[in-house]
Amino acid sequence: MSTMNTVGRPTAPNALPDNDYKHPTLTGARGLLQDEHLIFEGEGWGKTGVDLPEPATDGSDLGDLVRKDPIGLPGLSEPEAMRHYVRLSQKNHAIDLAIYPLGSCTMKHNPRLNEKMARLPGFSDIHPLQPQSTVQGALELMDNLAHWLTTLTGMPAVALSPKAGAHGELCGLMAIRAAHEAKGEHEQRRKVLVPTSAHGTNPATAAFVGYSVVEVAQTDDGRVDVADLASKLGPDVAAIMVTNPNTCGLFERDILEISRLTHEAGAYFYCDGANFNAIVGRVRPGDLGVDAMHINLHKTFSTPHGGGGPGAGPVVLSEALAPFAPAPWVVNTGEGYKLVEREEDEAAQAFGRLCAFQGQMGMYVRALSYMMSHGSDGLRQVAEDAVLNANYIKARLSDLMSAAFPEGPCMHEALFDDEWLKGTDITTLDFAKAMIDEGFHPMTMYFPLVVHGAMLIEPTETESKQELDRFINAMRLLAEAAKAGDVDRFKGAPFHAPLRRLDETRAARSPRLRWSAPEGSNIAAE
Amino acid sequence: MRFTKDHEWVRLEGDVATVGISKHAADALGDVVFVETPEAGKTVSVGDSFAVVESVKAASDVYAPVAGEVVEGNAALASAPETVNADPEGEGWFAKIKVSDASAVEALMDQAAYDAYLTTL
Amino acid sequence: MRYLPLTPDDREAMLAAIGAKSIDDLFIDVPQAARRDGFVALPRVAGELEVERALSAMAGKNATASIVPFFCGAGAYKHHVPATVDHVIQRSEFLTSYTPYQPEIAQGTLQYLYEFQTQVANLTGMEVANASLYDGSTAMAEGVLMATRVTRRNKAVISGGVHPHYVKATETVVHAVGVETQALTAAVDAEDAVIAAIDKDTACVVVQTPNVFGTATDLTKIAEAAHAAGALLIVVVTEAVSMGLLKSPGEMGADIVAAEGQSIGNALNFGGPYIGLFATREKLLRQTPGRYCGETVDADGRRGFVLTLSTREQHIRRDKATSNICTNSGLCCLAFTIHMSLLGETGLRQMALLNHEKAVATRDALAAIPGVEVLTPRFFNEFAVKLPKNAAEVVQTLADNGILAGVPYSRLAPEAGLDDVLLVAATETTLDADIKILAGALAKVLAA
User: Chains with 3 or more CB pairs closer than 8 angstroms to B?
Assistant: First the structure.
């Protein structure tokens, strides 16, 4: 008996009095989850986490221009900063933790090689206005990226500078507008046709550029109603904006007819390339009659979503639109690379400039690193696996949940409606929140708007079969619980997340968008 | 009280019409978080967007059901938008409009016709 | 293929579960004429080593800012970023998450956005700031569009001190919706011309401080003139660190601040990704572009944060949205807010003073060179000099000798006729030895 525990330390868990997980802690923390206050609520006024040399000037040569009042910026020492942000990070779901099946967002694995490459000083530590002779490698990279993008899409030209998908849409529509202006048709062509299922950026962009938006109906099988489109096309239409594969996760079967009708009417075909991941390497948009399409590098080409950005939205352009591409662009002269920064220099028809510099260089490096890693064979496999994974989910869940478009295969995302929840008193939102408790990020909800209570699931190609099965198993268990009347599990969910459901009404009614010092406090803030 | 197909209501007293959005509309929007009402003196035609109402999940233009000149916007809604949910067809009114053609109000749906219309949606 | 987990057996089993014979069955909706067999004409799969070699070779052809005497600015600035910043932004939970659509499992992102919004509001001296836009130039364009909505007027007066690329990026977008711009002639000190240009049709006045020539300007008079005419004052800031030393735009009467935040936490990156700071007065909130994070409580009454006021945005308002923007600069915001938290007010002021100190030392060194005329009267960390030679040629000659001497103004606006003007920036990273090298080399080139 020499190994007897003589200091009273129990080595097996106590028998629990009950299984009630509701056992609030005294401090608000929960195990690994720390209750972390705002940096403004600490004691960091006057503190700093950097060691800088003592300045030799006090700025008095600037006289009255010097800022005298307190600014209101607390400081953290390095260990405090590390803790603060690590504690915050642990309250986030992430792709690296589990499947993140947000439909239309393409949350795929973000290779770390991309990060390493983007941080090479030769890319990250160069200034956008250095003499071009000193950035030949950067221009070469842009030229290479352009080659990959134009080859994969079968389009002759690409404008790299748009800073996100919506910015790319803006670029595409501006090019279309410029083309109509060049033909003297801009004044008569003031409408843009957009299907009802479109992402909100499409109508917002068309309106942003000054077009009026006309909606095009959808057929019962989730595609553009070609007859309705044909009836709305005419000499007053500047462009159509169609997402393909569309936001219902379906390939537009009549795409060739759509582009033919559009071109016959003298309009241009803008394709929203948000879902290019489903067809990359297998279908070239150029073969579909597309005139302009943005490519979200953060979707198809794996640059990180980063909590909401930064994105990148290069736009590929047809022969008809290529002359109107905005500055700047790269030309390979044979003796080196040249960055054309002024549209007057080479092509008088360029519509202008979309941002101060060359666009999202950091994202170009990551995207090219990803494309080179996959190669043409790997990229084709990307599309195939993305589509296979989505169809697998659709097939495995369709007996319990109602697929919005059960006939035929889907592309890269599986769309369900809330028909199957009828009579359960559980909504799509409730179901999504219960998924959180099971460790999954919910799918996209209530989008596209054309499907009631929509649940749009996009697994991407970087999920293993094992992870898909784990997800499918959880979804099945939840669906069965919903049907069995286990309503509380859903209505109150999530119970196990860092926070319970948040009061969005309160946030919107009296917005508090910044921290302010409590009344009566003498904190050195405004 | 009369209603439009866009779910505005009108109550005419003399030549001044009080207008707002119907209970059906308020319920469909959910919790109203913001209302922008017109300033006095603004002239509106039938169908003009003259106010905005927002919930967390939706934003909607409110169309003038009658033509005329705005006499008063309901300023109280700026700080208490929830009134639109609590009492849409009373305290939650949007504006008072001095109408140019009172007979136009008669052409709108009455309560029974509006209720019947709602069942068709 | 290392990024693809499915095995051939998995694929076969999954096809069977679906009831498909081959992968081609899942692509049947693609018209026959658009199907492509085989691979597109690009290289095949490549291992990490191959990719790293190829990209490193390209990177190696560029002259990096940290290893040469470096004086480029004009909207992008070389600053030291603490190592903590890059470590934290690469944490999986930040790097590989998305827009916080599900706030219960995105409080990490939401809380830093709330802190970021507060820092930006305080830094700019404004009441509210959004969760960022793409960059400073697109923020300026959004500011002009917002001003036309607020004032229901249609003309923007743009100071001759605003960065020409910002002007171009703004004009490209706002002209498309019929907004007129009156861009004034390039001027080192532009205050009087701006005031003279304001009239009853002016929706907004856009000024930059420090301006593209480096001039730090008291904007109070311009603000008064703009407000007297019922116009808004939009203040552009391309060097965010300057606000640690100079009076904030808010103190000087700005209605909208459109700033580039790259200087805090973010690398030069050859121009992007950067981070657009956008701040304004609370009463104008409903007309602003972009997303906001707001404070609220959860079902148990605990404080939490959510995206809010989204009815202005495209996913709800569609064609009536205040902007078509859908993303923000997420990770760049995070880098900004971490760096700012490390600096704190004390560190920011110190860093700003060091920038000023180095710029003054550089100015003094260049001013001593025969033929060099300093144009900028008051500046933060950047100033313009007039050279007796073509500035672009001088810069090229110095670059050929391993010195990045600054940005010739003609690079930004060749039509301005300021071919002899060079913009020179210095920061806390500038070494005294580099200033000597620059001055010595410039003197030699000018004497040649």
Answer: A, C
Distance CA B38, CA B51 (A): 6
Give the distance from residue C171's alpha carbon to the nearest chain B alpha carbon, in angstroms. Answer: 29
Q: Does C318 touch chain B (CB under 8 A)?
A: no
What does the pLDDT look like over C219-270, one tens digit per residue?
999 999 999 999 999 999 999 999 999 999 999 999 999 999 999 999 999 9
Contact list in A for residue B61 (CB cut-off 8 A) is none
Say how many domains are in chain C: 2
Dihedral (C-alpha) C204, C208, C209, C212: value to the nearest 10 degrees?
-170
| Number of Cβ atoms within 10 Å of the Cβ of A407 | 8
A residues 125-164 closer than 8 Å to C (CB): 125-131, 133-138, 140-141, 144, 148, 151-152, 163-164
0.80 exceeded by pTM: yes
Question: Which CATH number among 3.90.1150.10, 3.40.50.360, 3.30.450.40, 3.30.413.10 corresponds to the domain A375-497?
Answer: 3.90.1150.10
Which residues neighbour B118 within 8 Å (Cβ) at sequence distance 6 or greater? B24
- B19: tokens are 């207008």
- Look at residue C406 and tell me if it is in a domain: yes
Same domain, C160 and C87: yes
- Chains with 3+ CB–CB pairs under 8 A to A are B, C
* A512 shares contact with chain B (CB less than 8 Å): no
- Alpha carbons A501 and A481: distance in angstroms, whole number: 20
Count of all residues that appear for chain C in the document = 448
Residue A19 burial (10 A CB sphere; 0-12, 13-18, 19+) = exposed
Nearest to A350 by CA among A159, A149, A184: A159
User: How do strand B8-13 and strand B2-3 relate by DSSP bridges?
Assistant: antiparallel
Angle between helices A78-89 and C330-367 (to 10 degrees): 150
Please list the alpha-helical segments (H only) found in A334-487.
343-346, 361-397, 428-437, 465-483
**Helix or strand or coil: residue A17?**
coil
Distances (CA, A) of C198 to C80, C135, C204, C218, C444: 40, 27, 9, 17, 45
Question: Are C276 and C314 within one domain?
Answer: yes
Residues C106 and C244 both lie in one domain? yes
Are B58 and C316 a contacting pair at CB < 8 A? yes
Instruction: Indicate the helix (H) or strand (E) that contains A194.
Output: strand A191-195
SS3 B87: coil
CA distance C185 to chain A (A): 18
Quick one: average pLDDT of B68-92?
93
3-state helix, strand, coil in chain C (%, to 5): 45, 15, 40
Among A21-35, A266-280, A302-316, A328-342, the minimum mean pLDDT is found in A21-35
We report the CATH number of the domain holding residue C413 as 3.90.1150.10
Q: Give yes or no for residue A272 having a pLDDT over 90.
A: yes
Q: How many helices (H) and strands (E) does chain B have?
A: 5, 9
Average pLDDT along chain C, 448 residues, taken 10 residues at a time: 97 98 97 89 96 98 97 98 98 96 97 98 98 97 96 97 98 94 93 94 98 97 97 98 98 98 98 97 93 95 93 74 82 98 98 98 98 97 98 98 98 96 98 98 96
Q: Chain A contact for B80, CB < 8 A?
A: no
The CATH number, out of the four listed (3.40.50.300, 3.40.640.10, 3.40.630.30, 3.90.550.10), of the domain defined by the range A114-370: 3.40.640.10
Domains defined along chain B, listed by start: 2-119 (2.40.50.100)
